[in-house]
């Protein structure tokens, strides 16, 4: 079998559906933004990003995110990530952004101004590089329903700034999906798209609740569905996509190693699986790296092409855009 090259992976048209904007900050950007905001950066910025499990990731993430104080900080991250993504063949990105986190860390920050600045940066990047993008507000379970409602209200006000939906992250063990049922019901009534981090640090019941109580259209991670045919059937019958983030799951301990990741099982069961990088600056893997890791495990070109197709199908972009991207993937596959 011919090994899939990294150059081929870069040329493959693909989307990135599960990436946290704050988690794209590079050590260089961290140092630059720190100084601009009058803060002294860590002596060794790269070391600050090193993490080996979920707890060390959270510590590193919070230390780094604290330097983001102004709308321009977030706008620069979006533009820089989209520029790099375009070089890597990414046609569409759906960013998670956590207003509730900023509400706690920088209470005086005008969040609507922040979102507008990010949207304007996304528009510039689209004009310059061609990569489209959308924004999803990632609600934080730990902060409770009131903060989630505030995020939902902000999302409704920011519909003109590329905001198309909401997500739910944070501690799924101690803050279950049922606590946010009313918020997600209202989001659905407003026409907002819905995705839920589930099955990363809790059992398969967390995935089931995300789908049946919150009506999630996508599940982030979903690793605990492995071996549970009943929950996988719930995923399948509800046409829910699973956004797989293999490197993230290895670093946080959700799975032991890449070749033990349940995306292999999910694909064999006919689930709609997409591939994403989660927090690339902290986990040390770009979207190209994620595809390359699967290629190293023996994934043939056709399976990698199908993952890209899955991503476009599961995106929250318009049906017209999806058709265009899928046609581009087909042309690329036929050219081989």
Quick recap:
The chain is α/β, with parallel strands linked by helices and 336 residues long. 51% of the residues lie in helices and 15% in strands. It is built from 17 helices and 8 strands.
Task: Explain what you see.
It is a single chain. By secondary structure, the protein is α/β, with parallel strands linked by helices. It has helices spanning 6-11, 27-36, 45-48, 54-65, 71-87, 99-105, 111-129, 144-157, 181-189, 204-212, 229-237, 246-252, 263-268, 280-283, 287-296, 301-314, 319-334; strands at residues 14-20, 90-97, 132-140, 163-169, 193-198, 218-221, 241-244, 272-275. The radius of gyration is 19 Å and the shape is globular. The mean pLDDT is 95.
Question: For the report, how would you describe the main beta sheet?
Answer: 8 strands, parallel
Radius of gyration: 19 Å
The fraction of residues in strands falls at 5-15%
Helix content: 40-55%
Provide the CATH superfamily: Metal-dependent hydrolases
């Amino acid at each position: 079998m011919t090994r899939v090259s990294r150059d081929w992976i870069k040329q493959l048209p693909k989307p990135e559906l599960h990436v946290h904007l704050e988690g794209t900050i590079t050590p260089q950007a961290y140092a630059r933004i720190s100084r601009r905001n009058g803060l002294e950066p860590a002596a060794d910025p790269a070391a600050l990003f090193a993490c080996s499990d979920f707890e060390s990731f959270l510590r590193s993430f919070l230390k780094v995110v604290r330097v983001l104080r102004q709308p321009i900080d977030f706008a620069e991250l979006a533009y820089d990530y989209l520029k790099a993504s375009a070089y890597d063949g990414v046609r569409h990105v759906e960013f998670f952004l956590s207003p509730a986190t900023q509400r706690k860390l920088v209470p005086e920050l005008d969040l609507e101004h922040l979102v507008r600045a990010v949207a304007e940066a996304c528009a510039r990047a689209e004009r310059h590089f061609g990569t489209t993008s959308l924004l999803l507000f990632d609600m934080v379970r730990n902060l409770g329903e009131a903060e989630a409602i505030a995020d939902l209200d902000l999302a409704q006000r920011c519909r003109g700034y590329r905001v198309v939906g909401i997500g739910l992250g944070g501690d799924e063990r101690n803050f279950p999906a049922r606590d946010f049922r009313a918020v997600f019901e209202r989001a659905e009534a407003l026409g907002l798209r819905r995705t839920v981090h589930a099955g990363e640090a809790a059992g398969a019941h967390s995935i089931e609740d995300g789908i049946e109580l919150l009506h999630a259209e996508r599940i982030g991670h979903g690793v605990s569905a492995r071996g549970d045919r009943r929950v996988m059937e719930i995923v399948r019958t509800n046409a829910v996509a699973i956004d797989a983030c293999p490197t993230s799951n290895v670093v946080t301990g959700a799975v032991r190693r890449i070749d033990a990741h349940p995306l292999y099982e999910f694909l064999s069961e006919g689930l709609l699986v997409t591939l994403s990088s989660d927090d690339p600056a902290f986990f040390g893997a770009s979207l190209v790296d994620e595809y390359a890791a699967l290629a190293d495990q023996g994934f043939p070109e056709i399976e990698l092409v199908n993952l890209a197709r899955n991503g476009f199908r599961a995106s929250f972009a318009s049906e017209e855009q999806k058709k265009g991207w899928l046609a581009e993937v087909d042309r690329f596959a036929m050219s081989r």
